[in-house]
């Protein structure tokens, strides 16, 4: 067997020396740090050809996107293109997904603008320097989250939070492009009332040349996408808008143009970093890090479902962090995964992450060829395209689905959406997460407590619902299945429900809790169990616990529940519990009971034979806590 180029090393283990176990361990560690060692040996002529085609396709679409996203972030156009060159290369080398393409994104661009524009003038050298600093800081946060395996923190941000954030950010982006679209100076969209008043005031004085260019560009992008969806509609629309501006000689009629790009090669830029910068930018940087990870991981998961590739979320987070750290030293602002470019990459037939690297190289070549032409792109044309991008960000179908299916998700969506518009973009993410966790914790604070009894009609006599199966209950004992964690947040609810239980079922003095395997317990829950055991003892009854799973039993030992309640009241199986609890029942009550719930009841003396079947049957107690 020979080891061919393109064959994974794992398929040729006999080529390793006698100490292959140590070598393999070292190789695994090396591949964990450098994931490109996994896919690089798989590159061959067939995969390279497919990656080249996908790379060219991606480079064509990212050119207008990079310019547009840089404008959203308040940066000159070249910085969006630098981001599209640098970040995808590093993310492809150190990330986990083979089809994710990183670069500038709308959400991150608008958050950068909102975070820094209050302290710096957009486009100024100070603003650009601050962008590199916050990019480095956000990348550092991402790298730390990946290195300590906290990738699951991303799951704390629900889908409704991102839908609400994206919709609110899209509206702000749309409104922020109105000045360029109509050629008039307008207030920032932070004050919607003032913006609306000023817009109404300037409407009669609009420049027809500006409107002709902006509207034509917008219509061209929509028409191309509608009738030729595979064509690069943004690029074509920019060409149409620029051509119209040239024909109309719009520059002489007040139409502004995009700044020229000095160099197509990303220059080295060392981000400024100090204690003051870290202190003032940490909140915004962490919000950016979180948004970037949400975009990247969610898109990578979507791509992996289509490509059937296994995904390591923590490695993907490490790759994103390294791409932003490295990008900040090469004049790139913060990037993340792009759904549009990643989907196009997969549809174009990309086989390995080399496609994203080739796309960056092709973009550099294109930029070196056409960079003089970028100065001929009219700003109204760019504003029209950005407004179209913003409109497409609003997922009407998903919003309708949220509003019509789940009140809790609707609350999360509305809080995030309104916070984006009226308060702050960064805080909106935190507000959405807080509401999500609050609603989740609210559910865990009320664990289910259904009553169960043995069902003699089923083999094995499993414990089942007495209401659904019309089963009799023991008049002296009640069995509750605990369906939720017994932690500090649920203790108050549990205390109230068990006080109500004792009042409604005074005869059922013996209480047994059937604790599910997934139920956890903390110190507050342990103290509550001990107190409930005392209450039952004072009533003349007892408290018994049935938990077969070792983690739960270790928790009971850890919090001294076993010692304080007594091992005689804690059981692994329900059968063991019944063998202990039935002898504790009051024989005088058992003698007149016809329920005969337990097998052990058959050996006890029953009611007189001439008594009707329901003469001494226990009255149906009030429902237990749900």
UniProtKB/TrEMBL annotation:
<keyword id="KW-1133">Transmembrane helix</keyword>
<keyword id="KW-0472">Membrane</keyword>
<feature type="domain" description="STAS">
    <location>
        <begin position="467"/>
        <end position="581"/>
    </location>
</feature>
<feature type="transmembrane region" description="Helical">
    <location>
        <begin position="52"/>
        <end position="72"/>
    </location>
</feature>
<keyword id="KW-0812">Transmembrane</keyword>
<dbReference type="Pfam" id="PF01740">
    <property type="entry name" value="STAS"/>
</dbReference>
<dbReference type="GO" id="GO:0055085">
    <property type="term" value="P:transmembrane transport"/>
</dbReference>
<feature type="transmembrane region" description="Helical">
    <location>
        <begin position="377"/>
        <end position="394"/>
    </location>
</feature>
<feature type="transmembrane region" description="Helical">
    <location>
        <begin position="414"/>
        <end position="441"/>
    </location>
</feature>
<dbReference type="InterPro" id="IPR011547">
    <property type="entry name" value="SLC26A/SulP_dom"/>
</dbReference>
<feature type="transmembrane region" description="Helical">
    <location>
        <begin position="206"/>
        <end position="224"/>
    </location>
</feature>
<feature type="region of interest" description="Disordered">
    <location>
        <begin position="605"/>
        <end position="626"/>
    </location>
</feature>
<feature type="transmembrane region" description="Helical">
    <location>
        <begin position="352"/>
        <end position="370"/>
    </location>
</feature>
<dbReference type="InterPro" id="IPR002645">
    <property type="entry name" value="STAS_dom"/>
</dbReference>
<protein>
    <submittedName>
        <fullName>Putative sulfate transporter/MT1781</fullName>
    </submittedName>
</protein>
<dbReference type="InterPro" id="IPR036513">
    <property type="entry name" value="STAS_dom_sf"/>
</dbReference>
<dbReference type="GO" id="GO:0016020">
    <property type="term" value="C:membrane"/>
</dbReference>
<feature type="transmembrane region" description="Helical">
    <location>
        <begin position="127"/>
        <end position="148"/>
    </location>
</feature>
<feature type="transmembrane region" description="Helical">
    <location>
        <begin position="160"/>
        <end position="182"/>
    </location>
</feature>
<feature type="transmembrane region" description="Helical">
    <location>
        <begin position="236"/>
        <end position="261"/>
    </location>
</feature>
<feature type="transmembrane region" description="Helical">
    <location>
        <begin position="281"/>
        <end position="300"/>
    </location>
</feature>
<feature type="transmembrane region" description="Helical">
    <location>
        <begin position="79"/>
        <end position="101"/>
    </location>
</feature>
<dbReference type="Pfam" id="PF00916">
    <property type="entry name" value="Sulfate_transp"/>
</dbReference>
<dbReference type="InterPro" id="IPR001902">
    <property type="entry name" value="SLC26A/SulP_fam"/>
</dbReference>
């Amino acid at each position: 067997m020979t080891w061919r180029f393109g064959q994974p090393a794992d398929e040729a283990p006999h080529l390793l020396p006698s100490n292959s176990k140590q070598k393999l361990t070292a190789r695994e560690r090396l591949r964990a740090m450098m994931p490109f060692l996994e896919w690089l040996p798989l590159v061959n002529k067939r995969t390279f050809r497919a990656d080249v085609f996908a790379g060219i396709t991606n480079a064509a679409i990212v050119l207008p996107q990079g310019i547009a996203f840089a404008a959203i972030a308040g940066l000159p156009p070249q910085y969006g293109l630098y981001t599209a060159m640098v970040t995808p290369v590093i993310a492809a080398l150190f990330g986990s997904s083979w089809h994710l393409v990183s670069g500038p994104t709308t959400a991150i661009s608008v958050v950068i603008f909102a975070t820094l524009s209050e302290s710096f003038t957009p486009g100024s050298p100070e603003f650009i320097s601050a962008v590199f600093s916050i990019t480095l800081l956000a990348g550092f946060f991402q790298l730390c989250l990946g290195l300590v395996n906290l990738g699951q923190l991303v799951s704390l941000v629900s889908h409704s939070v991102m839908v609400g954030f994206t919709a609110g950010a899209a509206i702000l982006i749309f409104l922020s492009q109105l000045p360029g679209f109509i050629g008039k100076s307008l207030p920032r969209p932070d004050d919607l009332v003032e913006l609306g008043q000023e817009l109404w005031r300037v409407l009669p004085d609009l420049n027809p040349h500006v409107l002709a260019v902006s509207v034509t560009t917008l219509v061209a992008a929509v028409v191309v996408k509608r009738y030729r969806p595979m064509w690069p509609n943004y690029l074509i629309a920019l060409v149409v808008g620029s051509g119209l501006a040239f024909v109309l000689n719009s520059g002489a009629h007040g139409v502004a143009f995009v700044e020229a790009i000095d160099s197509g090669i990303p220059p080295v830029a060392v981000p400024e970093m100090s204690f003051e910068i870290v202190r003032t930018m940490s909140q915004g940087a962490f919000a950016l890090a979180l948004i970037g990870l949400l975009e990247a991981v969610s898109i990578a998961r979507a791509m992996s479902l289509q490509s059937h590739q296994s995904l390591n979320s923590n490695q993907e987070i490490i790759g994103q962090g390294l791409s932003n750290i490295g990008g900040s030293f090469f004049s790139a602002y913060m990037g993340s995964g792009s759904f549009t470019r990643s989907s196009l990459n997969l549809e174009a037939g990309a086989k390995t992450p080399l496609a994203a690297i080739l796309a960056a190289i092709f973009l550099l070549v294109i930029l070196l060829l056409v960079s003089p032409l970028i100065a001929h792109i009219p700003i109204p044309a760019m504003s029209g395209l950005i407004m179209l991008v913003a409109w497409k960000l609003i997922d009407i179908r998903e919003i309708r689905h949220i509003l019509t299916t789940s009140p809790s998700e609707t609350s999360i969506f509305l809080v995030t959406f309104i916070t984006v518009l009226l308060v702050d973009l960064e805080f909106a993410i935190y507000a959405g997460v807080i509401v999500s966790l609050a609603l989740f914790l609210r559910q865990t604070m009320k664990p289910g407590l259904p009553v169960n009894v043995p069902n003699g009609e089923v083999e094995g006599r499993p414990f089942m619902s007495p209401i659904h199966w019309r089963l009799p209950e023991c008049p002296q004992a009640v069995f509750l299945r605990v369906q939720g964690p017994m932690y500090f947040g649920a203790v108050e609810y549990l205390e109230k429900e068990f006080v109500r239980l004792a009042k409604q079922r005074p005869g059922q003095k013996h209480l047994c809790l059937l604790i599910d395997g997934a139920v956890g317990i903390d110190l507050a829950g342990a103290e509550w169990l001990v107190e409930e055991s005392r209450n039952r003892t004072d009533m003349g009854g007892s408290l018994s616990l049935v938990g077969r799973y070792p983690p739960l039993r270790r928790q009971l030992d850890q919090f001294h529940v076993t010692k304080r309640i007594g091992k005689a009241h804690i059981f692994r199986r329900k059968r063991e519990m019944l063998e202990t609890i039935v002898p504790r029942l009051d024989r005088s009550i058992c003698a007149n009971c016809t329920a005969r719930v337990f097998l052990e009841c058959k050996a006890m003396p029953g009611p007189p034979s001439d008594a009707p079947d329901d003469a001494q049957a226990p009255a149906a107690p009030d429902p237990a806590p749900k």
